[in-house]
Amino acid sequence: MTVMEGQSVPTVGRVEAIPLRHALPPEQSYGSARGRVSAREGTLVRLETDDGVVGWGEAFGPPAAVCALVDDLAPLVVGAPVNHVSPVVHTALQVGYHRSHGGLHVCALSGVETAMWDAWGRYLGLSVSELLGGRVRSEVPAYASTGFVTEFVDDEGAFSAALQEAVGEGFSAAKIKVGLGRDRDRRRAEIAREKLGERGHLMVDFNSNYTADTACRVLDGLRDLDIDWAEEPVPPHDHAGYARVRRCGIPIAAGEAAYTRVDFRPLVADQLVDIVQPDLIKCGGIGEARTIVDLAQAWNLRVSPHVWGGAIGQAASLQLLAAIPNSPHTEIAGEPLWLELDRSPNELRWRLLTDPIIASDGVVAIPSGPGLGVCVDEDVVAELRVRDPE
């Protein structure tokens, strides 16, 4: 459907926050150098227009708090034209300026914003990538996000098997968890390099677990393993530390702990990172992520969205990736534009959609249907719903 002159756009009639949880058996807990998780949690946002079009969003953070914040946003959203995404976002941030420009209220806003994009696209019969300015690509290479930290941190067999499984499924790139000390980090990277081969792409994720001096010493010890990027080597507030680590000569990636363009401005303008990583379920949503992409490209930096959540966050990231213009190149890219494909046990990712997002030989096709291009299985949503989130 296209909007004709004089035709009104539907308004938002209802916004519902849905808390979800996938509990993990103790033996399956996993995580990073910062600690392990016993469950995967998240909040879906179900938005319905006054004429019955449904859009879906996803928000990062503890469901009890996020659901309350989505409810708090509802009066601002209900009654607004579904295509007034930017006015709703900016009004919410300006009205809530005293809450800061980051935190769980921005996560909640991300979920509502994404649901508006999805509903708007479904109403028009257009994909979100087309609404963002046009689809540049129909598929994207994916790297396997794997090699997590478990209770058995020194179990090289299990770590090696996880890498081998990804390679066996056609992945030529992987990101592994490090930040466990120089010896363990070196050994993990060696195993990953062996499994990926000389031409494979290897990223290492520190999850901000180091000071700048330690990160530099560890990276110096990994230099011969041809690391594509080192992710979050120091805490997000340590801008001086990022500047020090970036001088080590290995590309630096960060952004998963940054909110809105305000947090990303110094990362980009001060050239603190090489790869900018907005996470759509926490940075402010699809439109804010697109602005962050434009900032990165204005400073000639690479972009790779951080994707650590459920299926709706994946779908939104794919729509963003589809619309990112080639820059600074035209047809021949110096480095791939990557999708992060989480390989951890997470029913919020692989069960929520009637057609889950999967890779074939390390490549993911970007849905071309209306909105986010995916169909949510509401029976599964009901099954995973938390009745009394705490």
TrEMBL record:
The keyword Metal-binding applies. It comes from the Bacteria. InterPro entries: DgoD-like, Enolase-like_C_sf, Enolase-like_N, Enolase_C-like, Mandelate_racemase_C, Mandelate_racemase_N_dom. One of its GO terms (molecular function) is metal ion binding. The keyword Metal-binding applies. SUPFAM superfamilies: Enolase C-terminal domain-like, Enolase N-terminal domain-like. Coiled coil: none annotated. Gene3D superfamilies: Enolase-like C-terminal domain, Enolase-like, N-terminal domain. Residues 156-251 form the Mandelate racemase/muconate lactonizing enzyme C-terminal domain. Keywords: Metal-binding. Belongs to the mandelate racemase/muconate lactonizing enzyme family. This is Mandelate racemase/muconate lactonizing enzyme family protein.
